[in-house]
Design goal:
Largest sheet: 4 strands, mixed
Distance between the termini: 44 Å
Shape: globular
Number of strands: 6
Oligomer: single chain
Number of helices: 27
Helix content: 55-70%
Radius of gyration: 26 Å
Amino acid sequence: MNHKKLWIALSLVVGISFAVLLFYGNQIYQKAPPVPEQVVDESGNVLFTGSNIKDGQNVWQSMGGQEVGTVWGHGAYVAPDWTADYLHREAQYLLNKWAGGDFESQSSEQKALLERRLQIFLRKNTYDEATKTLTLAAERIEAFEHNKAHYTSLFMNDPALDKLRSDYAIPKNAIKDESRMEKMAQFFFWASWACVTERPGESITYTHNWPNDAQIGNVPTGDLVIWTGFSIIMLLIGIGILVFVQARTQQEEVLKPVNDPLMNQVITPSMRATKKYFWIVNILILAQVMLGILTAHYGVEGDALYGIDIASFLPYSITRTWHVQIAIFWIASAWLATGLYIAPSLSGRDPKFQKLGVNVLFVALLIVVAGSLIGQWFGVMQKLGLVENFWFGHQGYEYVDLGRFWQLLLVIGLFLWLTLMIRPIVPIIKKGTSERGLLTLFLISCFAIAFFYAAGLMWGRTTNLAIAEYWRWWVVHLWVEGFFEVFATVVAAFLFTRMGLLRIKSATNNVLFATIIFLSGGILGTFHHLYFTGTPTGVMALGATFSALEVVPLVLIGFEAFHNYRMSKSTEWLADYKWPIYFLLSVAFWNFLGAGIFGFIINPPIALYYMQGLNTTPVHGHAALFGVYGMLGIGLMLFVLRSMYRKQKWNDKLIKFTFWTLNAGLLLMVVVSLLPVGLMQTFASVNHGMWYARSAEFMQQPVVNVFKWSRIIGDTVFGIGTLTLFLFVYQLTLKKNKSTN
């Protein structure tokens, strides 16, 4: 296709998609579950206020938030989903009360009558928009007090709940203050109220009848079924069109330069200064994996490590927070450092103060990493006030747990990185060389990485959870899963063109086409995370449709892998780049399996209705985050080290062992443990309800524990791979100091 037409098509796709994304964002603002200014009894007496609910949300966040169970299905997987758990406990209290003490002893006809009474009672919307007041019947207030007593015993220090607390991996006195505990219970009530209360004028709840629990009337809606079918139709149409286009498009010719064009590349001082970034990357990988092993162990021994009491000072909520956040930090650092290395290589010289900028950014990133991790510990240990926790502690939102102050510093750091990328690249673009189009797209992706992380600043301390979730997924999906993907595609193409393996013009066209295809589904595909977070039905329709299109380019991922493999064999000197290219091959594999297969399993509305918050989600998360972005980060690091240590002989046996142990370990982790547990939970969710699939009763069954313990196989293999990667980088850089290069 014509180069200019591709740019126009890309502009239209991005412009229209973001217009729709923002339009429905405004709809979410208008139709989010309301936080009442007052919650009153039927006599008008105030029970608690909206500010109490918002403070309770902050208490939940300070404890770890989405790192301690889930709310609306988003978060961690050891403890329950608190909304599903609350509703089930509320329902059982009311049914037993109405049955005279024992609901289960009633006849089937009487049970059906009582359950219907329960549904009418709970699903009626008693919120008054004019007065912004929510009125509760006396029996519902009783149920609230009953649940509050349970959660107070659980999150504080009732010895009677020691076993349950251990099963949930919650330390004693996770909440140390009774007033905080009361407010968190009020937040749990509000979040659960939104799950069972029907929207004004509609017969569905604010969360589209999620979580599934037939006893309270939360069953799949017609929209779930219709849009699931439509998403599958769109997937088939998209695959058909892309296969047709692929068949008509001539495969890009692989060139065969006699010598490595990078052999004599000038390495500037700023390029050499990126070496310390890769050392930090390797240290963070080790830390992340060790924390991941500890986090997984908490699933079977929730209050200790083989009998050693570490939960009192390093609880599950902290290890999981650090495990997830460090993954983002090291992957981003590897990618940012690759950009910093590539940009000055274009001209072979540094702009003024480029090295200083690289060093300042490095220090800034270290401050953000250390400061945010320390702040999160202080927050979870309840050593900060609610305001201080928001700014310096734990925000409680998965992937963006770091306090707002650290978020701001990171945004500033990303824009500093963008500046360091612009300065050496813009002069090359102005020269009008053949690389202009590819470099322009490279800078656009760099801008997107800096800009879209800033979406994490769009919510405040007391923002409605539904609205905070909307912006959080801008960061998680558009930043982590979206424009990092564009950046990766551009960088890979650019590396191959610099090595003389691809023609710049055809590579640019291919990257533009791939970006159009990816963003066509990727931007509006963000909505598939928001089906059940208090959003209007249109969000489900768009999310189902466009998240299916996200899978379309992954169907042909084998062509990309084969193409890269052909390039790795095209000329003799490319043997030096075998393992960096092999890591790119593994990215293609994990893209298809982790993002494609495991992603689409949970994406359709009817599937996610039963699976949201189960171990099917970390199946996709591990395979896509480490399998795609992690392996790519390692591959990019190896490309840079291959260039930086061009005359150094590599320890091929060690890096080969690293490659296979990382990939085999990740696969074993997923298919031997996470996937079987997730599928068992799915059956339990369909047959009994979300509350049961996440309950200690189900998760502590012997057969489930066998699969949870079996994760040690994959974790061990994977952990060995990270150790050998560290050893490889250590040997390479140590020998470099003794070489003549």
